[in-house]
Amino acid sequence: MRIPVATYRIQFNPEFGFKAAKDIVNYLEDLGITDIYASPIFKARNGSMHGYDVVDPTRLNPELGSERDFKSLTKALRDRDMGWLQDIVPNHMAYDSQNHYLMDVLEHGPASEYGNFFDIEWEQPFYEDVDGRVLAPMLGDFYDRCLERGEIQLTYGEAGLRVCYYDTCFPVRIESYAQLITHDLGRLSRTLGRQHPDYIKLLGILYLVKDIRPEISGQQLKDQVAFVKFLLWELYKTNTEIRDFIDENIEAFNGEPGKPETFDLLDELLRHQHYRLSFWKVGAEELNYRRFFTVNELICVRIDDSKVFHEVHSFISDLVAEGTFTGLRVDHIDGLYDPTQYLVALRQKMGDTYIIIKKS
Question: 308-328 burial, b for 16+ CB within 10 Å, e for fewer?
Fold first, then answer.
């Protein structure tokens, strides 16, 4: 076990990445530093200046530099027999569109393959609006006001339907595609003709959407949803009439500011999602997920679940095994469900590695 003697804190961010850190290695060596102590270097929310809002713990943050830059820095440290003490964040991840684990949960609900990944209370009998849904307190004002100002918009692209509030976007569950496809469908049948092969394909997609069985879950559900999205996107790309039909329906769903009744379609679609958009202040009353302190944008993960534990620590473990990380510093261990259980599991996974913890 390598035990640090003199550490130097490096706060990585897009303005100070792996190349910048390498440039000061000689200086650190002259100071007598034995180990760098690094802030989180895993994929974080775009533009993060601290790295604690992780969206993917299984890959490096590309805003800090390339893998080549990372390898060059680690080689420079090894050449000088300097260690790397890495800050890790087992308690939470960013509640953000870039968090593919969370977006999968918001799209598929409890049936998601990551349904147990986050600390969510799906059953809320005392709060009907979030019973069976996840609160998404990301709006800057009350939901109705944001909706009727046109700040919440439905969009469509290769990834499927999404609901966006400025730069924050949420997926739309596959069952809700039927609402968009069936809206004024007669208009398309008159334009294209009921016997047109592409119109028949669109009806086939509609039947697939309506026939998704509630008992399927995990990867099977994900594969079926991906298949439906692929078929619809192919029609959208290749048939002008269908593209115009979908675009016009998107426009109809997005309403007209100043005309509240024009937002009924979008409101109805939103009421059937696995999440409920709300004013951020609502998080103080109806929150049904565990967060980091009172930060709505940081949702806690169920690190006590062995599958979640191994997913979150897989990349970290690889870097420990290859000798890149010579020590770990655990951030906010007091926020975990069972800190002792976590430390036992961490020691077993990381072997004879220096581990230090932070307690607030």
Answer: bbebbbebbbebbeeebbbbb
